[in-house]
Model the fold of this input.
Amino acid sequence: MKRGFLTVSGLFVAAVLFFCVNALTNAAWKSARYDFTEDKLFTLSPSTHAVLEELGRPVELHFYYSKGMADAVPEIRTYAKRVRELLEEYTLHSNGMLTLKMIDPEPFTEKED
Done:
């Protein structure tokens, strides 16, 4: 009986420890990435880093993306995902000076124009 209790409690402690370590590493390494592509397609150039660090005032980027159009044309969805990820990378490296606003324009509205 005692041995079974120790096994169950040991598994419980191990599970709690696993989830705690996972949560801490996820928070600490959230922005840690490595670009394994041959041409470093997802790595910002040194000049881009310099421009982002020299922003003198806050800038808001507007990314217009029609989800309805993307659902109809898969190529648009793939391209838009790549553009969105690049813009998010810019905001990540801008020291809070760059914000990204995603806009899904509805047909026949002011946003669409």
